[in-house]
Amino acid sequence: MSSTLRRLVLCRPCLAVLLLLGAAGAARAETTYVANDTPAPLVVQVTVIIRNVPRNDQQVLLKGNDPATAVTMLPGAKILTITDPRNGNRILFRAPIPASDTDQVYLVLPDGPSRVRVVRRP
User: Fold this and answer.
1) How far apart are CA 121 and CA 116, in angstroms?
2) CA atoms within 13 A on the CB side of 119
3) Does some domain include residue 99?
4) CA distance 81 to 106
5) Domain boundaries, position 77
6) Do 116 and 92 touch, CB atoms closer than 8 A?
7) DSSP H or E run through 17
8) pLDDT reading at 63 higher than 90
9) What angle do CA 34, 36, 40 make, to 5 degrees?
10) How many independent structural domains does the chain possess?
């Protein structure tokens, strides 16, 4: 009985190290960053498609001329929606974002009155 207990106590640090190494290898860098280059504040929401089911991530308020802010870290294909903070029903931009194994940075630029366009930054 004591030998079994001793093995469990001695193996616990080994298991912790293996779990950490396995989790680090399984983690994928799919963070989506959005930078607001317009003078007006914007609300950004990302919808992630997981097993053909859309799941909304939380909304992020980007102030005018805000540097790149992490919007979501969820993996998979995404739909980027940008709305007016004063009127949440007014969609300024909506487009799909393909899945990627690397971090993605997008820049929001003004495109006429009450319109914006999004450009991917390399």
Assistant:
1) 16
2) 9
3) yes
4) 12
5) 32-121
6) yes
7) helix 2-26
8) yes
9) 145
10) 1
